[in-house]
Structures are given as structure tokens and as C-alpha cells.
Amino acid sequence: MNNSQSRPIQLGRISYTNAWPVFHHFDPEALPFRTEVHSDLPATLNRKLKIGDIDMAAISSYAYGISSDSYYVLPNLSVSSFGRVQSILLFLKSPLEKVLHGKIALTTASATSVNLLKIIMEKFYGGKPTYEDAEPSLENMLENADAALLIGDHAIRASWTNHGYRVLDLGEVWNLWTGQWMTFALWAVRKDAAYRDPESFQAIYEALIESKGKSSRDMGPVIRKAMDQIGGTEAYWQNYFSHLCHDFGPDQKTGLQLYFQYARELGLLTSEPDLSELPSPTRNR
After folding, report:
1. Can you give the pTM of this predicted structure?
2. What's the pLDDT tens digit per position in 221-267?
3. Measured between alpha carbons, how far is 63 from 41 in angstroms, rounded to an integer?
4. How far is CA 255 from CA 63, 67, 81, 266, 278, in A?
5. Minimal CA–CA distance to 93: which of 173, 156, 169, 163?
6. DSSP state letters, 171-206
7. Which domain holds residue 63?
8. How confident is the model at residue 162, as a pLDDT?
9. Which parts of the chain are coiled coil (predicted)?
10. Same structural domain, 112 and 239
């Protein structure tokens, strides 16, 4: 392998539980070259991959879309759902009719979810709310807003509380309106990094696919880790992970392309993203 770079390969790992099945059995120490893993929120990984601080990462689908010319997609890896996702939640303090023209407090942790909310509010329901960024604390967010968007583990924990609010699952709303899958995150590698060392990135990709396969055959270790670190019951996490898909096949791609189309129609994207996959080194010889 051509691993002569002056620094280790920098990998980004989404810290949220929804990506754990892909990463759980991935061991960077087992790779025959140096790597460093950065575990963080999607928004931070989005920024680090864009500026080149990391070479490969799981990032928000929207962040991939706005910088797709610089990236390759890693085939058959995503965080997707066909309906309920249970961790992309809009908590409504006011009736939906008021929310549509009111104020929504947003988490800034993931660009995909924020723009999915805008598509739902503006394109599907015909509303035009105002949005304000906020730290992910449900009660604080709703002090001066009609609704609050939480994602990931913050959304899960809030859903367990006796909050008394109506809750919209954005994955479910998307599916009801479109009949399509929703892909929230993709695995991407910078093209310049892939050109420098294609064999190493292929090896990382194959290790992630192997990890995903082990998790799909036995979710027990991932579920136990979630119970230990986040809380909740075994039944909750079995149900939660059963609604997630970590593949990225033709159906998920079709749903994501529709998301990108709606984002362009709302001016959230300026061009059609390129979903070119990481080339296999053997195909380039």
C-alpha cells in the first residue's frame, strides 16, 4: 500500500448511536497503516472534511451535497430510514398551524435534518416559519419558540421525558409525503486523499463494511453499549435499530436524489450533487 503520507489518515466517526452499527466492530489498530479517528457531531465532521482536516468521514447528506465535487461516496454505507427514524424529532409547543408561521428553534448538529425540516415546513405544508439556532436543551429551546428540532441522542433522551408536547418524526413525515427513503448521512472520502492512497482507503472501506455486517448479524453488543451509555431498555433499542438502514442501494439513492431536488427548489442547494462512488483500485490499474 502507498501509505507514505506525512500524517496518519484522518477518519471521522459520528458520535450518535444511529451510526454505531457501522463503526462498532471497526478497529483502526488492525489496519496495516496509521490512522486517527475523530468522534464528533455531524456538523463538526462536515466542516473538518470540507477543509481537509480529515480525509474520510460519515457526514450529513446535505453537507455531502454542497461539496460533492470534492468527495466520493463509499458504496452501500449510510444512515437511512423508510419511515420513522426516532431520533430526528420536532417537538411542538404550539399547534402545527401556528408553528408553520411561527418560530422554530434548531439544533445546529446536523445540516441534513435542518434542511429536511425546511422542506417539510415550506414545501409540504406551505409554511414560512423563522428559524433560530439554539443549544440542544428542549425546555430552553421552547422558552421563546413554538417548536424545537432535536436530533440524535439529544432527541432520544428528550423523547423519554414526560414533556407533554406533540412530536413529529421527520423521517415519518418525509415518507408519508414522498413514499421514499430518507438518507441522513453518507460515508465520504475526499477525492484528493483517495487519489494519493487508493489502496488504504479501500482497506478502510472494506473494514467498515465488515463491521456493518457483523452488527447486522448480531445487534446485541451495540444494544448493550447503547443501554450502558445512553440509557433505555433492550426493547427500545431493538425497536430503534430495526427502523434504521445502513445500506445505500438504489432505493436509498432515489430518496436522497429527491431530497436534493427539493433542496434545490428551495434554494438550499445550487446544483445537482454528484454521487460518484469511491473507485476500486483494481479498476484503475
Report:
1. 0.93
2. 999 999 999 999 999 999 999 999 999 999 999 999 999 999 999 99
3. 13
4. 16, 19, 10, 17, 20
5. 163
6. HHHHHHHH-S-EEEEEEEEEHHHHHH-HHHHHHHHH
7. 9-79+182-279
8. 86
9. none
10. no
